[in-house]
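A reminder from the course coordinator: this example appears on the midterm review sheet, so study it carefully.

Given structure:
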């Protein structure tokens, strides 16, 4: 299957680029709507307009349909539009560790990953750099990029921005973190997270549908939703799974993750300073059964319970 962006005409591309560049000018790329000129002032994500990239490499730790046998061409952009107190990658997401790259340099990095055999190009927490990434995908497509684009996101996305990625992104990989706006604000400084995440995931599903695999079991298109179970049910897992089953599809591919550990500032927060328990993860699996979800990756063999 050819990647979606290969079907776009030059006029299609220019229309998308013009619109997303306007969203970037007074930045409203994500739900925060900071409305700042990032060449002059930082928004809540603290990211400048110029791309900052922490790493570009083959990654073998994603779900099997994403990793495959040759790895996912993962691009960790620096900074993030969330401020998660438990972020395991906080030097990248919150301190901005990385190096500056032009749009063309990022395009060239994608092509290098493709040449190394990557099954896909996987942008991690990319929403605050949506405009630069779209420009880079455009440039890379003109120089021979053909593999699928993965949008590996925290789901705190603007539907207006996502709409522009229709026929650009092939695989959406959102991590729905919470089903409770108060918890999202407390633990990730993300007002109205649940409201935005539901709309964003629905738009992703509208664009790409269910996960489609090739004959080797590698994802070529579709939606795969992640959910990290948090201690004391701070993630609101039952409601997340109910939403997926009832408002997206019970056939949605889901990765139910158990690997939470207290990183960054989590050790200072009483109800976040331990790993999850075996019972907490078992409860999550019971919710899978309750809602009849059909395609769920679990991590029972990888658990490190407290």
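Designed residues:
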């Amino acid at each position: 299957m050819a990647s979606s962006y290969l079907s776009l005409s030059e006029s299609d591309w220019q229309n998308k680029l013009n619109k997303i560049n306007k969203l970037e000018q007074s930045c409203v790329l994500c739900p925060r709507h900071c409305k700042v000129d990032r060449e002059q002032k930082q928004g809540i994500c603290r990211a400048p307009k110029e791309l900052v990239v922490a790493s570009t490499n083959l990654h073998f730790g994603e779900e099997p349909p994403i990793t495959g046998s040759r790895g996912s061409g993962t691009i960790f952009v620096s900074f993030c539009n969330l401020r998660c107190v438990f972020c395991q990658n906080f030097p990248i997401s919150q301190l901005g560790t990385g190096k500056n790259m032009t749009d063309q340099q990022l395009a060239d990095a994608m092509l290098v990953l493709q040449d190394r055999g990557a099954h896909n190009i996987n942008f991690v927490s990319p929403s605050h750099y949506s405009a630069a990434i779209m420009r880079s995908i455009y440039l890379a497509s003109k120089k021979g990029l053909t593999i699928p684009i993965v949008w590996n996101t925290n789901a705190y996305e603007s539907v207006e921005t996502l709409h522009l990625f229709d026929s650009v992104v092939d695989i959406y990989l959102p991590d729905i973190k919470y089903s409770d706006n108060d918890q999202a604000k407390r633990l990730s400084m993300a007002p109205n997270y649940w409201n935005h995440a539901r709309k964003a995931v629905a738009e992703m599903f509208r664009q790409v549908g269910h996960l489609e695999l090739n004959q080797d079991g590698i994802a070529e298109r579709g939606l795969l939703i992640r959910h990290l179970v948090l201690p004391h049910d701070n993630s609101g897992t039952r409601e997340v799974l109910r939403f997926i089953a009832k408002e997206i599809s019970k056939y949605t591919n889901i990765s139910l993750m158990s690997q939470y550990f207290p990183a960054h500032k989590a050790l200072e927060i009483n109800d976040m300073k331990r790993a999850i328990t075996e019972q907490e993860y078992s409860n999550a699996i019971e919710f899978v059964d309750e809602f009849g979800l059909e395609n769920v990756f679990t991590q029972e063999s990888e658990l490190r319970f407290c």
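The longest strand covers residues 219-228. The CA atoms of residues 258 and 304 lie 8 Å apart.
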